[in-house]
Design brief:
The protein is an alpha+beta fold and 78 residues long. The chain is 54% helix and 19% strand. The chain has helices at residues 6-11, 13-21, 44-57, 65-77; strands spanning 2-5, 26-30, 33-38. It is elongated and about 70 Å long.
Length: 78
């Protein structure tokens, strides 16, 4: 991971983009504080796998939404 000032980044922006394209992460600093990160883009396959893992990790507790709505309507009529 490369840390570089914003001023240096503006001067060497094309070179930084080439490094990021090769997989390196670049941290941009202004007054020694992190203001941005340049990271390589995720491949489409990686995003989809992550979304599938995210969805699979969701655990629904209680009754389904449709059952909740039906029960609420029944209660309103009573």
């Amino acid at each position: 991971m490369l840390k570089i000032s914003v001023e240096e980044a503006t001067i060497n922006f094309k070179n930084l983009l080439e490094q990021v394209a090769k997989g390196e992460e670049v941290i941009l600093l202004e007054e020694n504080k992190i203001v941005a990160r340049l990271v390589p883009p995720q491949k489409k396959e990686q995003r989809l796998v992550s979304m599938k893992q995210f969805r699979d990790a969701l655990a629904i507790k209680g009754e389904s939404l449709s059952t909740t709505i039906i029960n609420a309507r029944i209660e309103e009529r009573s």
